[in-house]
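It is worth pausing here to work through a concrete case rather than discussing structure prediction in the abstract. The textbook approach is simple: state the sequence, then state the predicted structure, then interpret. We follow exactly that order.
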Amino acid sequence: MFDDRLPTSLWIDALIRRAQMAGAGVFVLQKGEPSRGDVLLKVALLNGDARLYRPQPNMAGERVFIDLTEQGVDPDEKDVDRYIQGAKDRDRDLWIVEIEDRDGRHFLIEPVESLS
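Step two, the predicted structure:
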């Protein structure tokens, strides 16, 4: 069930560890509410493009991630950063994590689904 997930701070720690172990750069740009804060995950490809992921429950109530750059957010890194700034302005409990990886690996263990 979506509400039974790990506290966000522990989930973030595990994501950071997976990315670092694989040799990717990872940065927490904003710390949110430790137990239930929402997350935006930016993956910078280091070529001017980026991917952006956010969690949401699927039809079965399981936590999955949606690639927002497949849902209308322009993958240009500046546009991704503008989207993040708007989300940050609306939600102070939001965690924002950036991974720098030329291969575009997100290191999520949760499924990534398309809304289309």
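Step three, interpretation. Residues 2-113 form a domain with the hypothetical protein tt1805 fold (CATH 3.40.1530.20). The beta strands are 25-30, 39-44, 50-57, 63-67, 95-100, 112-113.
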